Amino acid sequence: MPVTVAVDAMGGDHGPSVTLPAAIEFLEAVPEARVVAVGLLEPLTAALAKIKSPAKARIAIEAASEVVEMHEPPADALRRKKDSSMRVAVNLVKDGRAEACVSAGNTGALMAISRFVLKTLPGVDRPAIASQLPTRKGVTTVLDLGANVNCSPEQLLQFAVMGTALVSAVDHIDRPTVGLLNIGEEDIKGNDVVKETAELLKASGLNFHGNVEGDDIYKGTTDVVVCDGFVGNVALKTSEGLAGMLYDFLKAEFTRNPLTRLAAVVAYPVLKSFGRRIDPRRYNGATLLGLKGVVVKSHGGADVMAFRNALMKAHAEAAEGVLERIATRMAATHAAMPATAANGSLSADA
Amino acid sequence: MPVTVAVDAMGGDHGPSVTLPAAIEFLEAVPEARVVAVGLLEPLTAALAKIKSPAKARIAIEAASEVVEMHEPPADALRRKKDSSMRVAVNLVKDGRAEACVSAGNTGALMAISRFVLKTLPGVDRPAIASQLPTRKGVTTVLDLGANVNCSPEQLLQFAVMGTALVSAVDHIDRPTVGLLNIGEEDIKGNDVVKETAELLKASGLNFHGNVEGDDIYKGTTDVVVCDGFVGNVALKTSEGLAGMLYDFLKAEFTRNPLTRLAAVVAYPVLKSFGRRIDPRRYNGATLLGLKGVVVKSHGGADVMAFRNALMKAHAEAAEGVLERIATRMAATHAAMPATAANGSLSADA
Fold first, then answer.
1. What domains are defined for chain A?
2. Which of A163, A293, B54, B191 is deepest in the core (most CB within 10 A)?
3. Which residues pair with A142 in a beta bridge?
4. Do B234 and A254 touch (CB under 8 A)?
């Protein structure tokens, strides 16, 4: 079945000037896909008028009368902006008019709206934010990256199930390995929540590797790394901060004087190839995982290439049936767990 | 008063072949300092015999009959190895024969032994591990980096007080800014512990900047960043993993073929200058902060330059009176806090 992706065309720092060209590039790359671009009619039609590609025929426009601001409190966006481009895009998924939705807008608002409109899948207490990070071996999917600041062991188990389903679908790995982010490899390390989670994971039937440490993310030790949203968010932001600093230091050294600038010219192809390998735009798109619908959050500052990749990701997740896989894996894990855990379902007690 | 540093000469991956030459370099750099090298007599005297420097006259040898292994459980090291080089080195501080001690051995064992032998300073529930990280602006001191996986708001406040005392002493900053590591800048972000900690910090009289995020560490937004040991350890290890991966990717690109290798030759001075700027050996030495004695943990794989820097750090902390500063600041914070907090002291309720 051809997949239709609903696009919050107003979201992000650049709005339709990025989201529409990105949608065109996505449609050119995936000939059977369709896009519904949601937003204020005037800027949307103006931006669309500038586009010449025949792929334009596969873009439909859906009107929305307002826009969620980047720093608007999520609760306000949810309660007061019922006709925002973000809300209308999520509604399209709810109504079955689209199989996935992508927004570069306010993360908190997107999560609040998606949870309210779509609800979570059976067995999922709360959605998690999952994203791929580049590693020495390829990519690792890390979750949660910031949606849940306090997680029970049962919730972390659910994240492991969801991450496994996502990676098996999108990366075509049959039994992805799962690592539990901790501060040491030994079983005795970590806090009580992590220790209890390890016990659940051992009994889950998932391909549980054991504890991993922060450096294992970039070593690519496991296909999936599970952690609570506080820890995951700190790991992600710390990585962004360090990568940005190293990039700027390298640039500063190469532009220090005429001699170093000459070296930069000679080294340019090498530096460019290095930059391509770790270009964050290649990994743009975080999945709001555990909802009854595919929702992908693009970085707010995404350019056309980056936003296109978020669209590709949303398309792949819908086309590969991530939601069905989560449901199946959740049921299988449920069946594999000891009686007490199974009777209590995989839900948190609270 | 001249400072004597006790050195666990057996600790780390290389033992006396690194620790003694590093001690010499340290003594050459700090003419009034003295070192007591602790370890098995035979390898110690053999390593010392190879050294020619006149600074050798300021190294005394203290015998120990055993060595704590790198992966030995800390409880075993504490209970069974009462004559380990690590234990004897810490004892020298306890007995007033040294003002500071440095070990590149097992972190958990060093913490357990130091707590047992030296005890904590008044008002300090548990010691924290503090270290400097390079930033865009200079350095930032982050704590805790892994000693405490569950922290109360009161403990996090104590870390802030200790970090402030450390930075004011060693970096000569009168009122260092303190950031609370969180997943957003707004007050409503984070878990309950972090929110309560923010309230304590606001009332503490410290120079509290507010919440900071992971990327603020490398931006150098604040002089001190406070977090619990689980989060801090993940941030540190994630950083190490990412830096290592980027280094290897850059190296791989520059050694891909004869052309890129030529580019590497041209770019060599630039790359070297870049590498020097972020060389982790420059920042080697994590302080076990909050003890009644200066204890510095060197990286286990430290080379001579790195271990020398750990010795310099220990010396500076003793010479600048970090312990007295912590005591003074702890009392001042105590006085600044509202009655309830003051009455309950700064100790955790538990």
1. 4-118 (3.40.718.10), 125-283+321-350 (3.40.718.10)
2. A163
3. A131, A225
4. no
